[in-house]
Amino acid sequence: MSIFNLTSSDFFMFLFISVINLYLIECGRVKRVIGGEEVACGTQNRVASLQNASNSQHLCGATLISPHIAVTAAHCVEHEPENYCLSLKNYCTDDNIVPPNAQVLEIIPHPLYSRFSGAHDIAVLRLLLELNDIKWLNDTVLPNSSFGISGECTMYGYGYRDVTRKELSNTLLSARLNLVSLDECTESLGQYVAPKYDSGMICAVGEEVDACQGDSGGPLICAGKLQGICAYGLSCGVPGIPGVYVSVGAHIQWLRSVIKNIQ
């Protein structure tokens, strides 16, 4: 439907939703681990820091699928590939040794990604990673589907440790979350913020832990599989308020098709 065919009330509702979602993009859609625990080096090597290639500033999280492929949130990579690089900060190195870096060669966002609604907020990164030790990348973390996933999951990120101090974590942090239904998510976030049923998203909530600024694009791991990618939320660490994640299982056919073309 074209916006030119909307009634005046529908148009103002469309405008209201667009403004709300733009606010979330600027203020709350970039997420951080609040109240998380430090993760020992070498235990989650594939969880990377997506950085500004010119100054190494942390921007978002990302997850390596193979030595040549990573996934992140599409809203994290809206500029040209040369603007980004990945730092494998959880890879164990000696003191004063820079962690391995990967160059981003190509960015492939989901064709249905919408910056305004946040739907299908997923992108594949084609990488150049010069690293001999890649045995830890031999097993796949991609799920077969999203059917039947429930219970406790763990999210990982390098974002802010504390809301007030606004200091990024140099160490990978984790937080345990529980998946909730989209009905519960809508009840908590409201119909204009919660993801739509056809948006390819899921929701998860923790107890005094949450994802906020700096953790968008980072993984939500459930039973050893990458089931979610951190996308957005209303606030940070508010009891009972879930965060929104891209469902990897809902996009698995597209992901596998892109990965096959790259390889």
Explain what you see:
- This protein has helices at residues 8-28, 182-189, 252-262, and strands at 37-38, 47-52, 58-66, 69-72, 84-87, 101-109, 123-129, 152-157, 173-180, 201-205, 219-222, 225-232, 243-247.
- The longest helix has 21 residues, at 8-28.
- The termini are far apart.
- The chain has three helices and 13 strands; from the N terminus they run H-E-E-E-E-E-E-E-E-E-H-E-E-E-E-H.
- Strands 8-9-10-13-12-11 form a six-stranded antiparallel β-barrel. A six-stranded antiparallel beta barrel has the order 2-3-4-7-6-5.
- It is globular and about 45 Å long.
- It is α+β, with helices and mostly antiparallel strands and 263 residues long.
- It has two domains: 45-138 and 252-262, Beta Barrel (Thrombin, subunit H); 152-249, Trypsin-like serine proteases (Thrombin, subunit H), CATH 2.40.10.10.
- It is an enzyme of class 3 (hydrolase).
- It comes from Vanessa tameamea (Kamehameha butterfly).
- GO terms for molecular function: serine-type endopeptidase activity.
- This is trypsin.
- It holds the Pfam family Trypsin.
What percent of the residues sit in helical stretches (DSSP H or I)? 10-25%
The neighbouring-strand order within the major sheet is 8-9-10-13-12-11
Helix and strand content put the structural class at: alpha+beta
- The N- to C-terminal Cα distance equals 38 Å
**CATH topology tier name of the largest domain:** Thrombin, subunit H
Low-pLDDT runs? 1-32
The best one-word shape is globular
Task: Average the pLDDT over all residues and give the rounded result.
Answer: 82
Superfamily (CATH H level) name of the largest domain = Trypsin-like serine proteases
Number of domains: 2
Strand content: 25-35%
For the record, the CATH architecture of the largest domain stands as Beta Barrel
Put simply, the count of helices is 3
- What is the CATH class designation of the largest domain? Mainly Beta
How many strands in all? 13
Query: Major sheet, described briefly?
Result: 6 strands, antiparallel, barrel
- The gyration radius over C-alpha positions equals 18 Å
What is the string of SSEs from the N terminus onward?
A: HEEEEEEEEEHEEEEH
